[in-house]
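wait is this the right file?? whatever heres the structure
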């Protein structure tokens, strides 16, 4: 246990034995440092020894240099004490570089579309930091969470709820199709690319996490069955339904555009993200193709939210 920590955001040393924590001019500081780690930046509080470059017995024993605060029970007193967080997953240098490069690319791409974008945006309640926040023309905000390392489902839920409570729609980015965030919050999955490929502007294909709106006339020549007749027969009416992505093109091979089906009209949108960027670029994606990261970064929300699971409000 320790009686002091380093506050990484404010750059101050906190003395837990002092009534004012040894600092002045930081209203709400006690509430902030007592916030559950799942609801704030886990690296908010740092071991003083680690900060000073000195050896720490807890770190040598396998703990992380990051701290949390709790009240101990000593006789009839309940003093504040600091303890080290366990190491749940230590991002590799490659993961850290990928994270930084993706975050910077989101901001640069959004600004390229004329949108306001900022990196490392703290929540008003000081219970978290969003990797990047993109603000659309109507003031709607998308909070990008680049999550290339493992994260528990409960943490995804808490951080998403915290964002929504501050009128920010969370959008999680993963590279692993087994990531816990998938179908628990709005998400997008990209290929596992090197940080240099991301930083150099290589195409970042969205492999999953969106749906497309398909509109078709219910004819005998249609590839889809009639939803009003139990999947049998055709009624001649026009139907529209949201579908999960069709065939996604391989990572190293592009699927040629075969052109529109004469019996069907297809309009593709991510639920909740407008398609203006496609129209501006003059290259609307064809049915079955994945989108690009730039489509998401340069879009505003209009209908619902990106593809998400039942627990996320879809």
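ok assuming it is, sequence goes like this
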């Amino acid at each position: 246990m320790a009686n002091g920590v380093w506050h990484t955001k404010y750059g101050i040393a906190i003395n837990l034995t002092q009534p004012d924590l040894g600092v002045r001019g930081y209203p709400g500081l006690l509430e902030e440092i007592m916030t559950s780690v799942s609801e704030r930046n886990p690296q908010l509080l740092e071991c003083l020894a680690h900060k000073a470059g000195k050896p720490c017995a807890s770190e040598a024993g396998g703990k992380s240099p990051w701290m949390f605060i709790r009240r101990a029970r000593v006789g009839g007193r309940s003093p504040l004490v600091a303890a080290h967080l366990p190491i749940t997953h230590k991002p590799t240098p490659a993961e850290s570089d990928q994270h930084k490069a993706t975050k910077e690319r989101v901001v640069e791409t959004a600004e390229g579309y004329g949108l306001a974008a900022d990196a490392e945006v703290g929540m008003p309640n000081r219970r978290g930091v969003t990797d990047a926040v993109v603000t659309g023309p109507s003031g709607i905000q998308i909070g990008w969470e680049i999550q290339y390392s493992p994260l528990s489902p409960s943490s995804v839920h808490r951080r998403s709820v915290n964002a929504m409570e501050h009128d920010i729609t969370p959008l999680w980015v993963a590279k692993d199709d087994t990531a816990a965030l998938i179908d628990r919050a709005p998400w997008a999955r990209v290929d596992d690319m090197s940080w240099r490929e991301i930083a150099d502007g290589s195409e970042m294909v969205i492999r999953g996490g969106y749906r497309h709106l398909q509109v078709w006339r219910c004819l005998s020549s249609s590839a889809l069955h009639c939803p009003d007749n139990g999947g049998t027969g055709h009624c001649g009416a026009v139907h529209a339904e949201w579908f999960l992505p069709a065939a996604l093109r391989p990572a190293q091979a592009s699927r040629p555009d075969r052109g529109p089906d004469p019996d069907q009209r297809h309009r593709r949108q991510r639920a909740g993200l407008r398609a203006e960027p496609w129209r501006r670029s003059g290259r609307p994606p064809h049915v079955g193709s994945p989108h690009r990261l730039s489509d998401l970064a340069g879009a505003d929300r209009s209908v619902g939210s990106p593809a998400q699971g039942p627990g996320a409000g879809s």
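The first strand starts at residue 4 and ends at 7. so i think its the right one actually
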